[in-house]
Request: fold
Amino acid sequence: MITFSNVFDAIKAALTGREAGTKVQVVAHENFELMLLNYVEQLYAQPVTRESHASATAGSPCDLVWNQAFDDTNYTYVVNGFDTKGNPVEIYIISKTATKIVVKTLVNANMTALAFVHTP
Reply:
């Protein structure tokens, strides 16, 4: 997976890896152009929003696993839970990883979560 840092480093290397007053070498230019295009294509190929659904058991940890894992934990999420009568429930966040968040409720509930990746 190509990162923003990879593209930035390739452009920086092409520009600074030459003598002052000389042009950027064609090979270096082509390299960072292709890397930039692949990076953009990769960004648009991934869904921006992830989702998860689960049933929580009162007092037990509940894994809300994303339909597609993130590269890291640099994302924001929103969690909602409702009991069998449709009343909202209080949700306690236990942990967050690239693949899931773990929550806990004090009553049985149906849980839904949405997450949004942070893009540079």
